[in-house]
Amino acid sequence: MKAPFLGQAMSDIPESFSTKYKGIASPVPGDDLENPIYTGRYFIVPENGETSLQEAVNSFSQAMGMSVASSSDYSAESFKEDNIADADIFLYEDLGFALVSADQEQVQMMEAVLSTQPLRIEPELVMYSIPFEGSPLVEGIAATNPVSVAAATCTWGIQATGSDISTFTGKNVKVAILDTGLDLQHPDFAGRVPAANQRSLVPGLTSVQDMHGHGTHCTGTACGRKDNLGTRYGVAGDSEIYIGKVLDNSGRGAQAWAINGINWAVSQNCKVISMSLGAKVFPGISFVTAYERAAANAVANGALIVAATGNDSRRPGGQIFPVSSPANCPSVVAVAAVDSALDIAFFSNSSVNPGQDVYIAGPGVDIHSSWLVSQGGYKTISGTSMATPHVAGIAALIWEKNPSFTPLQVKTELRNLAKSLVPLLPTDIGFGLATAP
Questions:
Q1: Is 212 a catalytic residue?
Q2: What does the alpha-carbon distance between residue 409 and residue 398 come to, in Å, rounded to a whole number?
Q3: Homologous superfamily of domain range 146-429
Q4: Which candidate in 214, 217, 368, 390 is catalytic?
Q5: 215-263 confidence digits (pLDDT tens)
Q6: Which of 245, 317, 323, 343 could potentially form a cystine with 181 if both were Cys, beta carbons 3.0 to 4.6 Å apart?
Q7: Greatest pairwise CA separation for the chain in angstroms
């Protein structure tokens, strides 16, 4: 399958998508072309659940000579895009959609075929581990005084969530971190992530070795223990860590890589799937169907997905953006960020689009956690990406306490345990600050 083009200018997307695509806004003036929205590939999705997807795929294949591969030919445990390099279409049979690599002429032919069937085309999105605007004020930039954080008994986030006084540690609970990977040389994770618990879903990369830092930081917050000074920075220190590399070493990835990562984590019987990644969403735009189907399938198979609401807002300027994708999906727990004063983070997105709501909040400003060993081993950064693994770790603690819980029961318990943050609005922080059982 044609590799996604993660540096594509938005002007390369056919004009027809400004009216036909329902999953993300059409290109808008002023967006940073260095941070593209689309990969250049497309999802074919049934409109109303009718079983016409296979018929459409067969039509494309016959009319345009496109080769087809199917998920039924592979196991989720071992699948990655490298397996289907020669295919033009990949059919996710269990999830009910297809991924297509096509040029603009082929897309126009597909639209002609689809016009007679209850199906639509959705461009595949680019996922980011960093703010869409690349703001120097949020993720990836060290806090002004990380030393004072590192000298404490535990980080402010661990203390604020009550994780430091909880009797639960996530023991025997499998937690998957889908991100840029993990620094396998980091001493804090020695012996905790065997090869069987690692999977790269990025084409061309066989190792989950993190060359970016973001994934290592998120893994530390969710599942780490203490740093080299004895500061506790991780929530579920005895959980079983699974690392799915779904973003490349620049912090970018294709939507399908993340979906493949979800499927892999489910195949490993992971209970919690933490996704500190996202794509910018605009007002009035729906969630992405392909993501929702993957998330709903995860829930049906016993896994809870926790994802970042995104860092696109600039609250001092009155600019507030909707919850990002995939956190805006109904089957995903959307996590906002608060600071150490338990105020909403200036960059944290909100429940702007109806039905795409923030569910809960976590500590997300000046968060000290693990980083690349080659860059010091620890770093203090900010973002809803940092809030998300706090909540993922707490979900693991809940599951340790209640092993028979379903994902929906864990989600409800997150709500029941949440600390009220009045006068903050539910549209910003959901049910409140996530706290440990």
A1: no
A2: 10
A3: Peptidase S8/S53 domain (3.40.50.200)
A4: 214
A5: 999 999 999 999 999 999 999 999 999 999 999 999 999 999 999 999 9
A6: 245
A7: 65
